[in-house]
């Protein structure tokens, strides 16, 4: 994108006077001076306008209305700073990055903390799986758009905190929803909830099938999510959550070379079809939350959870390419928040302890080119234990000025017990990291509904088990260390009149010992590669033009740069752009809302160009996507029938929905399988019966 277009996008976005924080505009006021919207993701519960951090809030209407509810990007597209890839390959899962964190992930999510109803979906080693998130149950999503290690420790370059509905948060009754669309997309969901005295409950069951827009991309998935809450007495509540995922098939069509993608974007690789590359997952999660404001002067919250995941996958190439594991992940988190005073000044503080443990029994098998399993190549137990203690406090110097301090200590132990000794090597070993994180911030209310803040903080991200592979053979790579980040941020948010909210942030992040991949033959390893510099500007606005019209938009302008880094060919890559990160992102939506539930929304998205590898040899073109959705409601006594439909990629734009960063670095550039083409114009429609 040239400088003139760059400026044009900025001016056009500013002219729209809109950007993401729809939750602000929709929040009610007790009076002109009091904003009731609170945020909980930073763990210290407080009003948004007293929070010295870039935090976005998405509420239920923006999650549900006319959406397929397949992936998080549908709900979070209008949050500035977030970049999504890989929405359509269910075997590789959604990829997400914010401010450069998460960009190195070849699939799935790294470096960003995910949690649902207080239950972590991010493992102690930093990996996250989000295939069990039930968006049909989601009631609220909070996003911290920057490092948050003080709150959550390892791999918290950003935070997505999802809350699903409780039985007493919705009108009693049920919902039945049926969807259909292009590529044989079918989805059914049923939900019921009710209240009986002090007990409330809600349960949601959904089933999805889709053939996909490419060969070898069929997927089937069932989700069940249930919550039961009971008020024991004044100030005490216990809530149990159960979530189950049954994913019998998610096929993987593989990445294509540029020539293959241009010749036939719908094709799968020959090996993916021959080997039937796909994955199977079964997962069950149980969580219990205890909330108590009676036993102590403040508020005590205890969360305990257990997750079991059974996973098997055939990768789209022969060799040691069939993997399986049986995972047990459990732990407990505690938080205690209280209001006190220091030197006569109000102090709100929180302290807590997190103890989480992960245990993976992993196997790997060798597969011939005809798909036959020729032998086992790996059997080991990978275990990770994280123990942490943290504390945060906000000191009110005046009614307008708040000072915030926080500190956290993490002890993270990663260990491998090698049970496969037939190869003559014992790859057992362990690494222990002791990390301190700190943050300091200042928040000033220029007016009751206008805030400016500044913050500086540190964060760390350890290598995952996959990234710890030793290129010299055997055990952990002794040279690999956690990457360390220093985050500086200046932000401003507010409301103008009754209908316009704004949120802007300037950030500058320096990361030392950045973890980046390199190849030895066909195998990928990781190293601490110098440092990176990440500077950017995020702007979010939401404008209620009238009762009927609303426009929202999210603009991100950033510069991501490698420093002191040697690329995969051994060349000095200092000054190159970090691969996989567009430096311009702009998403906007114009929504019309009529009477009796009638609505229509037009969304447009611009993704700037970026590079596919550290050496910056392959430039991935920018693209625009346009989408449209609309719906209506028919009321029948105490029941409602909601009808809706949508078109994605309205202009039938050719683009890549995913780029496999740094793939096949040992091959010539033209033979690297970076590209996964996105679908052309697709349609979906559905109905929802509310009874």
UniProtKB/TrEMBL annotation:
Pfam families for the chain: Plug, TonB_dep_Rec_b-barrel
Signal sequence, start to end: 1-25
GO BP annotations listed: iron ion transport
Domain TonB-dependent receptor plug stretches: 48-159
Domain TonB-dependent receptor-like beta-barrel, chain residue ranges per copy: 242-650
Cell location: Cell outer membrane
Motif range (TonB C-terminal box): 674-691
Example of a GO cellular component annotation carried by this entry: cell outer membrane
Bilayer topology: Multi-pass membrane protein
Keyword annotations: Cell outer membrane, Ion transport, Iron, Iron transport, Membrane, Receptor, Signal, TonB box, Transmembrane, Transmembrane beta strand, Transport
Superkingdom to which the source organism belongs: Bacteria
InterPro entries listed in its UniProt record: Beta-barrel_TonB, Beta-barrel_TonB_sf, Plug_dom, Plug_dom_sf, TonB-dep_rcpt-like, TonB_rcpt_CS
Protein family (similarity comment): Belongs to the TonB-dependent receptor family.
Classification via PANTHER family: FERRICHROME IRON RECEPTOR-RELATED (PTHR32552), TONB-DEPENDENT OUTER MEMBRANE RECEPTOR (PTHR32552:SF81)
Protein name: TonB-dependent receptor
Provenance organism: Marinobacter maroccanus
């Amino acid at each position: 994108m040239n400088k003139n277009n760059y400026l044009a996008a900025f001016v056009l976005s500013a002219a729209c006077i809109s950007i993401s924080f729809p939750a602000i505009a929709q929040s009610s006021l007790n009076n002109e001076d009091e904003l009731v919207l609170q945020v909980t993701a930073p763990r210290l519960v407080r009003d948004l306008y007293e929070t010295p951090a870039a935090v976005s809030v998405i509420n239920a209407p923006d999650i549900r209305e006319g959406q397929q509810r397949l992936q998080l990007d549908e709900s979070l597209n209008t949050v500035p700073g977030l970049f999504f890839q890989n929405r359509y390959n269910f075997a590789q899962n959604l990829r997400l990055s914010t401010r450069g964190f998460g960009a190195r992930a070849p699939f799935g999510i790294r470096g960003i903390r995910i949690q649902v109803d207080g239950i972590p979906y991010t493992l102690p080693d930093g990996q996250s799986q989000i295939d069990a998130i039930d968006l049909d149950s989601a009631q609220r999503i909070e996003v911290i758009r920057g490092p948050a290690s003080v709150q959550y420790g390892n791999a918290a370059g950003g935070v997505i905190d999802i809350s699903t509905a409780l039985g007493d948060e919705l009108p009693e009754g049920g919902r039945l929803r049926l969807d259909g669309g292009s590529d044989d997309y079918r989805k059914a969901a049923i939900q019921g909830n009710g209240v009986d005295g002090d007990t409330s409950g809600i349960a949601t069951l959904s089933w999805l099938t889709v053939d996909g827009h490419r060969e070898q991309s069929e997927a089937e998935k069932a989700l069940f999510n249930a919550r039961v809450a009971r008020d024991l007495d004044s100030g005490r509540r216990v809530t149990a959550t159960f979530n189950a995922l049954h994913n019998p098939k998610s096929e993987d069509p593989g990445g294509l070379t540029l020539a293959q993608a241009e010749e036939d974007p719908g094709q799968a690789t020959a090996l993916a079809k021959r080997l039937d590359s796909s994955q199977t997952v079964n997962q069950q999660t149980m969580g219990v939350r205890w909330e108590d404001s009676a036993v102590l002067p403040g508020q005590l919250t205890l969360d305990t959870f257990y997750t079991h995941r059974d996973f098997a996958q055939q990768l789209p190439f022969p060799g040691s390419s069939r993997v399986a594991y049986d995972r047990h992940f459990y732990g407990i988190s505690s938080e205690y928040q209280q209001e006190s005073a220091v030197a006569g000044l109000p102090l709100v503080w929180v302290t807590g302890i997190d103890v989480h443990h992960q245990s993976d029994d992993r196997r790997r098998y060798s597969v011939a080119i005809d798909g036959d399993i020729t032998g086992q190549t790996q059997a080991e137990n990978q275990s990770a234990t994280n123990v942490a203690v943290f504390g945060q406090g906000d000191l009110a110097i005046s009614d307008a000025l708040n000072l915030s301090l926080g500190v956290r200590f993490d002890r993270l132990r990663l260990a491998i017990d090698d049970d496969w000794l037939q190869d003559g090597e014992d790859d057992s070993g362990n690494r222990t990291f002791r990390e301190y994180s700190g943050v300091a911030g200042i928040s000033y209310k220029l007016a009751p509904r206008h805030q400016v803040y500044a913050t500086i903080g540190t964060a760390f991200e350890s290598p995952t088990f996959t990234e710890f592979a030793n290129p010299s053979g055997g055990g952990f790579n002794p040279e690999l260390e956690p990457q360390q980040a220093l985050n500086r941020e200046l932000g401003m948010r507010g409301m103008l009149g009754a209908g316009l909210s704004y949120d802007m942030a300037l950030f500058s992040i320096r990361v030392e010992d950045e973890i980046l991949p390199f190849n030895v033959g066909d195998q990928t390893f990781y190293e601490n590669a110098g440092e990176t510099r990440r500077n950017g500007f995020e702007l979010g606005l939401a404008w209620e033009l009238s009762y009927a019209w609303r426009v929202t938009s999210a603009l991100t302008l950033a510069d991501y740069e490698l420093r002191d880094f040697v690329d995969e060919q051994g060349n000095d890559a200092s000054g190159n752009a970090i691969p996989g990160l567009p430096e311009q992102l702009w998403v906007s939506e114009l929504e019309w809302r009529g009477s009796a539930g009638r609505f229509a929304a037009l969304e447009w998205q611009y993704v700037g160009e970026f590079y596919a590898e550290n050496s910056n040899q392959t430039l991935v073109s920018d693209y625009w996507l346009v989408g449209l959705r609309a719906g209506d409601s028919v009321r029948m006594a105490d029941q409602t029938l909601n009808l809706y439909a949508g078109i994605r990629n309205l202009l039938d734009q050719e683009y890549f929905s995913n780029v496999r960063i740094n793939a096949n670095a040992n091959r010539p550039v033209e033979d690297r399988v970076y590209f996964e083409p996105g679908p052309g114009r697709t349609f979906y429609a559905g109905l929802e019966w509310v009874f």
